[in-house]
Amino acid sequence: MTTMEILARAKAACAGAADLKAGKINEALEKMADRLIAHTPGILTANEADMAAAKEKLSSVMLDRLLLTEARIAAMAEGIRAVAKLPCPCGATLSSHRLPNGLRVRKVAVPLGVVAIIYESRPNVTSDAAALCLKSGNVCVLRSGRDAFASANAVTDALRAGLADAGLNPDFIQLVQDPSRRSASELMTAVGYVDLLIPRGGGGLIRACTENAKVPCIQTGMGICHIYVDRSADFDMALRIINNAKTSRPSVCNAEEVLLVHRDIAGVFLPKLKKMLVDDRAAEGKPAVELRLDEAAAKIIDGTPAGPADFDTEFLDYILAVRVVDGVDEAIAHINAHSTHHSEAIVTASSRNAARFSREVDSAAVYVNASTRFTDGGEFGLGCEMGISTQKLHARGPMGLRELTTYKYVISGDGQIR
Amino acid sequence: MTTMEILARAKAACAGAADLKAGKINEALEKMADRLIAHTPGILTANEADMAAAKEKLSSVMLDRLLLTEARIAAMAEGIRAVAKLPCPCGATLSSHRLPNGLRVRKVAVPLGVVAIIYESRPNVTSDAAALCLKSGNVCVLRSGRDAFASANAVTDALRAGLADAGLNPDFIQLVQDPSRRSASELMTAVGYVDLLIPRGGGGLIRACTENAKVPCIQTGMGICHIYVDRSADFDMALRIINNAKTSRPSVCNAEEVLLVHRDIAGVFLPKLKKMLVDDRAAEGKPAVELRLDEAAAKIIDGTPAGPADFDTEFLDYILAVRVVDGVDEAIAHINAHSTHHSEAIVTASSRNAARFSREVDSAAVYVNASTRFTDGGEFGLGCEMGISTQKLHARGPMGLRELTTYKYVISGDGQIR
How many CB atoms lie within 10 A of CB B96? Predict the structure, then answer.
């Protein structure tokens, strides 16, 4: 089927999806999870084909994103069941009041309609996104990256079989059958067919959407996250936070990419940093972190000289750009100029600097004395997550079910005129 | 100053605007209102020049939009004082919770940053938009239409003088000095400088934004509003509502443009409609409404045959397109295919049809037995209004102060890692 045919089917399915009762949605989600488990052998076979084709092209970090195992498929199914247990966001009356003339004005949560998601090589996005869209009464059009296409197709087949098991229209969940740039650009320009486009991926995809999207769009998932170590920081705390933010999962968007260090402590702190991220890790047989150092840092420790692009790059790898700054002012200015407005942290003992950093850093999540890795829908209490919005409109930070809805006003009267 | 210079100044002013205390904002708003009154003679002189230049080009309805009087300027000043009395939307903690590991997660309302507004020939938009942006901690860049440019400049000068009187940076409010298409397109593509673009105007402007905007954008103000008169409708109520929605102020976006009438009652209802909107108004010396009739309606009453574009046109004038439909299904289908998703009404005695219409019509405001003219921030209890959003993302329907903000998460800990 062509992408436009898929979009036409999605549009036609919207009214049906919006009309679903919570019980029916949850029944379908359980059946989708059942089917995912039942289809495990076929999904693994498809994933092996994807992995074989990608082996030469992708880094080990990216291959790990692509890999499915029985345990990971089980986790995807559990993820769907967890969504079933959340409250349905639609139909709720958000506010209601009566005007002096007797008119009753109700603000009601309603689905957006057709939600299109362009993503890359993580097959679990297929099931996560589909479950969240169904739960919020939306119809989804999924566009997987080419590297994960066979896996995404196998997962989608399972989910659609689950919808059919529940007696629902399988077109509530569709996968674009053309994983090329052409289909991405068709989705970006499908005015009247796509109510919300969510690109989940790297800088190239985000820029392509900014440049070309004519449909409403939320930019997610690109994280050039900063940690600033202030003069008054507890060094052990700072090291623990940096170690976690940089090395616990470098391929994710809330991982640290840039470290800013106060000039007054750089001489003592940076050698400790190098020992932890480079020497100790190498000794333990773990991948060492490559440090890309600005001039001042390079005078203190060994590393790679930072090029001009290194402070504007989402490495998603064991690489950390390091810059020495004069204080919280320069840190805030650097972050506001270079960050992707995702997550930034300050490590400090100064409540004044913590307050300034929290107020003036213009990012979705601002941390005081904690790891940037906490930016996550589950951690933030949303119960789930469609992605991390790095824009200011509609949703910022982790997007849960509520962020996949809009509202309408329903006004009832008995002949009122103005 | 060039538009890009204005944008650079706006960006530089953001941190200052976001940092303002409520008391200071309200003091500045009062001084802006004082200055507007004090500058009345100069503003009227500028407006006379605009009116003289526009006299040949604009319809009487559009000229009325452009006209300023002492009373209208006083109303603009009162509008600013009313904004001063509303609560400030920023700084509020929207939600807060503590994670099991002790992290405190706060969701805090914050300004968007630079809000750019492209509008047409209503000089009062200049003061309304500036007041709402300041109140919500945003910096505004106003781009008036050419027809109202002298008036907008005079109003902006007064507002900036008010900011200076309060000791604030006048760059919180700036007017683009080039009222041509070029500056509109500069605003649409100023990625990194414009946090939100609000086009307030007709179809051409909205389409230009959909096609060209690369910055986040909210489409407002285009209203092809429908009223559907169901078989069971109370005719007197229907006529009263239509008369109000069509003739009380035809130049506004919540005025009715299209009437749909159930086939079973069209033979009785349409002659009453024609008597009210055409014959009686002509007899009273009021402008008669031109009826553009589909084939079925044209067999019942006299009028202009409707052309294919008449059901997709925002007339903003004493013109009403009329179509006969088979029932609520056809009415809903027609509306969802032709409306701008602004405001639609059903007149009916059937609670079943009212419920279906409310649920299935995909518009910002859906009315049962009331005039579409109520779609308004003041009427909806928002206290004010920046425009009526006809899109689903971020804000739908009347946009008040809250809709001019975003939020950030501020997370405080004592060294937590994930």
Answer: 11
Cβ <8 Å between A417 and B241: yes
With an 8 Å Cβ cutoff, is B351 touching chain A?
Answer: no
Indicate whether A202 pLDDT > 80: no
Pick the residue from chain A with its C-alpha nearest to B112. A392
Is A367 in the B-facing interface, judged by CB distances under 8 Å? yes
Order of all β-strands in the sheet with A139-143: A173-175, A139-143, A114-118, A196-199
Q: How far is A42 from chain B (nearest CA, A)?
A: 34
- Determine the average pLDDT of the residues in A215-241: 94
Cα separation, B418 vs B416, in Å, equals 7
Q: Residue B382: list chain A partners with CB under 8 A.
A: none
> Do B216 and A380 lie within an 8 Å CB cutoff?
no
Judge: B366–A411 Cβ closer than 8 Å, yes or no. Answer: yes
- CB-side exposure of B372: number of CA atoms within 13 Å? 33
Whether the CB of B89 is below 8 Å from some CB of chain A: the reply is no
- Distance (Å, whole) CA A280 – CA A289: 10
Comparing C-alpha atoms, which of B183, B184, B213, B156 is closest to residue B391? B213
Q: B6-43: per-residue pLDDT in tens? A: 999 999 999 899 989 999 999 999 999 999 999 999 99
The residue type found at B365 is A
Q: Does A145 touch chain B (CB under 8 A)?
A: no
Residue A123 per-residue DSSP state: T
Interval A274-326: pLDDT, tens: 999 999 999 999 999 999 999 999 999 999 999 989 999 999 999 999 999 99
Question: CA-CA distance, B112 to A334, in Å (whole number)?
Answer: 20
Tokens of B92: 């509020």
- Which value, to the nearest 10 degrees, does the dihedral of the CA atoms of residues B401, B402, B408, B412 take? 100
**Which of A234, A409, A412 has the highest number of chain B CBs within 10 A, making it the mutation to test binding with B?**
A409
For residue B138 the two structure tokens come to 């945003």
| Contact flag B370-A408 (C-beta cutoff 8 Å) | no
For residue A336, which of A313, A371, A360, A314 has the smallest C-alpha distance? A360
Distance between CA atoms of B239 and B247, rounded to whole angstroms? 11
Which among B193, B8, B218 is positioned nearest to A393, based on CA atoms?
A: B218
Q: Which residues contact A181 (CB under 8 A, 6 or more apart)?
A: none
pLDDT of residue A61: 78
Element (H, E) at B163: helix B149-165
Instruction: Assess whether pLDDT exceeds 80 at residue A154.
Output: yes
User: pLDDT tens-digit profile of B390-416?
Assistant: 999 999 999 999 999 999 999 999 999
Q: Under an 8 A CB cutoff, do B373 and A234 touch?
A: no
Please, which residues bridge with residue B398 across strands?
B388
**Which distant-in-sequence residues (6+ apart) come within 8 Å of A28 by Cβ?**
A134, A162, A163, A165, A166, A168
Q: Which two tokens stand for residue A154?
A: 């196998």
The count of CB pairs under 8 A between chains A and B is 188
B216 versus B61: the higher-pLDDT residue is B216
CA–centroid distance for A81 within its chain: 20
Distance CA A401, CA A399 (A): 7
Q: Which residues of chain B make contact with A365, given a CB cutoff of 8 A?
A: 408-411
Residue in chain B nearest A99 by alpha carbon: B379
Taking the C-alpha atoms of residue B339 and residue B328, their distance in angstroms, rounded to an integer, is 15
Cβ B371–A214 below 8 Å, yes or no?
no
